[in-house]
Q: What sequence folds into this?
């Protein structure tokens, strides 16, 4: 593993630092597609990271997430912030996955130089792409975006990964989303720092708000989830009503997001999360490179072939073979 | 990592070798629940493995897999073979997941000393348990079972894992299962060494058989899947009609399974698959233990804490930190 080969990307990095959108897009592609070069780029950009506020928008299909993302993006712009949008949902218009009409309806975002839109969903399955979501946010963070809005479809593990990448996760529901118990079952209750009942001009919105509030109260009283540091995190997720199509409630939602950010900062949760996230990142990178480096060594691949044959000949077992390789590759303690 | 601590299990192993069902059940629990002790047990049993014929039975819910497993088990017994049954499907009566009536309806299996039934589905999610399916089969193999029948519900990755653990995979469908194209889409076409149209006394059975045969023919003509060695594997998966409830067609199905086994042996596919599987097992064990051993080292965990702090202080990056740990733990090439 070498992270010193920056020669090919140094010009790109200089352009990136100067604010070039083209360079940013190119670096994002490297981060998504070229793991080795990605390490070098991300290492280089690391000192620029840590300033952006990362907002996750999740919820079931049909909850109006894309429209909400658009309106939150606009509201951020109104407040003078630059915006990055990362779409992990393949059906999102931000991913080009919806009718062209949707893109046409939100031209102010698509043409605003203060908005950078990146779709992670156009090149393959959601699962794999989600793995790079954090790194994509890291690049946009280094690019100087004040707010990064991550839009993701509500599906299991992906959601958890993204909740891990965001500072604040907004769970978006609609009055028709079904009862709050279903929501909790789907794991959405666990990850919501804020709840948004969108399309709240429809029937059942107030009941939905009440149900969520009840669930939130139950949750606050029960032991921690892995996303919280219980001793210091006394945040009670608020429930906000919006009508994303008209923008109703969106400023209030952003106000609550700002409140949550302040809470994260003053309570020490942010520091704690950051420590956890750095630690997890070091562990993950080490394990990834460990695997790669071990099998890439010619002595180890020879040894693997030889030991495989020995097992087939009855001279050893896979267990002893693995032990032997471990002894070879690990330095003495 | 130590695989030399067999003292606690040595009595158990002696009982196991003497044929004790109790000892077999206990060792299976160790293999499922205690990774460290499992390595020692499996290493010890390794020389006893490699004799059993491992049959995977998969297909969509409602295809009658459990009844088919029961009848195949009986037919094996009729032919003088001992049987092991491994149920990965939580809804299987073998897992206790169905009506007690189902278990009562197949008493000859549940009370036959020549049949050992193990459910892997009663203790948690299917995904995690499936990971240990191969090892459970290994133990039953060492126990001297002639045939091991693995019953699994048809769901994505689990299926692939189990197809990897079985010598012959029977994909079970019913006339109502929908068209063959759907089956192929679900990945079942890829893993079937044999196809069984169960409940074939129902309408549409012959059409189903024809559709599958057409798909099989298309598949034989197209490039390999990861489960085959194309150059030497010219097996054309047969389609067998059964009515599992009456036992109709089950002897023919077992005949075809025996044919497939012979084919695997004479064509060299078995040898090739065995080499691949040993190699994969060594790699998997090495990676698992590598991860474990690295983070367990006190010097490394101190280093991780120190480097995490350095990253937080802006003195380094997660990328350089991971590199530093790699340098510490990997022996010089």
A:
């Amino acid at each position: 593993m070498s992270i010193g080969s920056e020669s090919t990307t140094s010009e790109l990095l200089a352009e990136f630092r100067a604010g070039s959108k083209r360079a940013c897009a190119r670096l994002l592609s490297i981060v998504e597609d070229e793991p080795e070069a990605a390490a070098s780029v991300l290492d280089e950009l690391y000192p620029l990271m840590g300033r952006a506020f990362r907002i996750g928008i999740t919820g079931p299909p049909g909850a109006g997430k894309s429209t909400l993302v658009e309106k939150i993006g606009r509201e951020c712009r109104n407040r003078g912030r630059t915006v990055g949008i990362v779409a992990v949902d393949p059906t999102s218009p931000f991913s080009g996955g919806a009718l062209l009409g949707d893109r046409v309806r939100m031209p102010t975002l698509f043409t605003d130089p203060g908005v950078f839109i990146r779709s992670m969903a156009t090149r393959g399955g959601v699962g794999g792409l989600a793995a790079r979501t954090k790194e994509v946010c890291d690049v946009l963070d280094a690019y100087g975006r004040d707010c990064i809005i991550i839009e993701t479809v509500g599906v299991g593990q992906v959601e958890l990964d993204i909740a891990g990448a965001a500072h604040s996760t907004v769970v978006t529901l609609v009055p028709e989303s079904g009862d709050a118990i279903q929501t909790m079952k789907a794991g959405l209750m666990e990850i919501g720092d804020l709840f948004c009942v969108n399309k709240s001009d429809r029937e059942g919105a107030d009941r939905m708000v009440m149900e969520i509030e009840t669930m939130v109260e139950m949750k606050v009283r029960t032991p921690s989830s892995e996303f919280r540091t219980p001793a210091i995190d006394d945040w009670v997720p608020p429930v906000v009503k919006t009508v994303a199509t008209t923008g109703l409630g969106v400023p209030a939602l952003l106000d609550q997001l700002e409140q949550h950010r302040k809470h994260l900062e003053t309570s020490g949760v942010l520091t704690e999360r950051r420590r956890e996230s750095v630690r997890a990142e070091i562990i993950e990178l080490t394990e990834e490179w460990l695997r790669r480096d071990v099998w890439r060594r010619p002595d180890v691949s020879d040894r693997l072939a030889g030991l495989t044959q020995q097992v087939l000949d009855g001279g050893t077992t896979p267990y002893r073979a693995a032990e032997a390789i471990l002894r070879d590759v690990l330095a003495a303690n």
Remarks:
- Chain A touches chain B through 47 residues (CB under 8 Å).
